[in-house]
Amino acid sequence: MIVYFNGKYLELNDVKVSPFDRGFQYADGVYEVMRTYKGKFFRYEDHMQRLAYSLNEIKIKFDKLNDLTVILARLVDANNQNNEEITAYIQVTRGAAFPRKHSFPPEGVPPTVFVSTSALPQNTFSIDEGIKVILEQDIRWKRCDIKSISLLPSILANQHALEQSAGEAVWVNDGSLTEGSHTNFFGVREGVLYTAPLSNLILSGVTRKVILEICDSLGIQVKESAIKENELESFDEFFITGTTTEVKPVVQINNLIISSGRPGVLTGKLYEAFIKIAYSHSL
């Protein structure tokens, strides 16, 4: 596999990260993940805007965002010999500096930039299926709007979900469901779509944005307001969204079976509309 690392295209095994890199020592960095549909990156500009936002919020100076278009194209050409759909990973840390200290390194220390592409596993999930999710008390820091590489709480929550035969863990903050460990979370009640409002408590998901645009085009009412843990039984449907998750129905939350235990009608409608848009790159 060929990857991009600090200005060079290298075999993955040839990449050498300094032990004093602040990403390695402090999780001092941000990342972005995107995928292709029919060989084209979906919502590329949205992903770049979110990356720029994350970089700005933690004050990493990176002035080569525009170069990523060429970098990704070269990596796709080098790695994707079978014309498969791919996922791309971009990570930027504050760079390597010695001696180790918590404050920012001196001016002139360049960020560490890593980009990789890989084949996206074929999605065998059917919209006729559904998943179980578990609820976890939100123990993360309060800047979840930044796509930080500091992911230990999400890793532990997602592992706990796996151990409970669940497909995702959903965070609960002060009695409200905010988002999943790596997804956005939605509920449907009496035909109205509910999802947590954008704030420092959730990531501004690109797929989330597309779903809200679809709702607007189809005349589906949306309320960006908290979904309360003590009101879950009053909802008819739930689903999660994400770049590689797409739109996935939730049919069980902890021990609560949602409605009939089958994916909801509106969830299916939004899934089909999303897939149509993704492969046509419209909207």
Give a short overview.
The chain has 283 residues and is α+β, with helices and mostly antiparallel strands. The protein has 6 helices and 16 strands.
Q: Can you describe this structure?
A:
The longest helix has 16 residues, at 265-280. The chain has helices at 22-26, 44-57, 68-79, 152-163, 206-218, 265-280, and strands at residues 2-5, 8-11, 29-37, 40-41, 86-93, 112-119, 131-137, 168-173, 176-180, 184-189, 192-195, 222-224, 227-228, 237-242, 246-253, 256-257. The protein is 25% helix and 30% strand. It has two domains: 2-119, D-amino Acid Aminotransferase, Chain A, domain 1 (2-Layer Sandwich), CATH 3.30.470.10; 131-280, D-amino Acid Aminotransferase, subunit A, domain 2 (D-amino Acid Aminotransferase, Chain A, domain 2, Alpha-Beta Barrel), CATH 3.20.10.10. The protein has 283 residues and is an alpha+beta fold. Strand 3 and strand 4 (40-41) form a beta hairpin. The strands form two sheets. Strands 7, 8, 9, 10, 11, 12, 13, 14, 15 and 16 form a ten-stranded mixed β-sheet that branches. Strands 2-1-6-5-3-4 form a six-stranded antiparallel β-sheet. The radius of gyration is 20 Å and the shape is globular. The model has no long low-confidence stretch (mean pLDDT 96).
Topology:
Elements: E1 2-5, E2 8-11, H1 22-26, E3 29-37, E4 40-41, H2 44-57, H3 68-79, E5 86-93, E6 112-119, E7 131-137, H4 152-163, E8 168-173, E9 176-180, E10 184-189, E11 192-195, H5 206-218, E12 222-224, E13 227-228, E14 237-242, E15 246-253, E16 256-257, H6 265-280
Parallel strand pairs: 7-8, 7-15, 11-12
Antiparallel strand pairs: 1-2, 1-6, 3-4, 3-5, 5-6, 8-9, 9-13, 10-11, 10-14, 14-15, 15-16
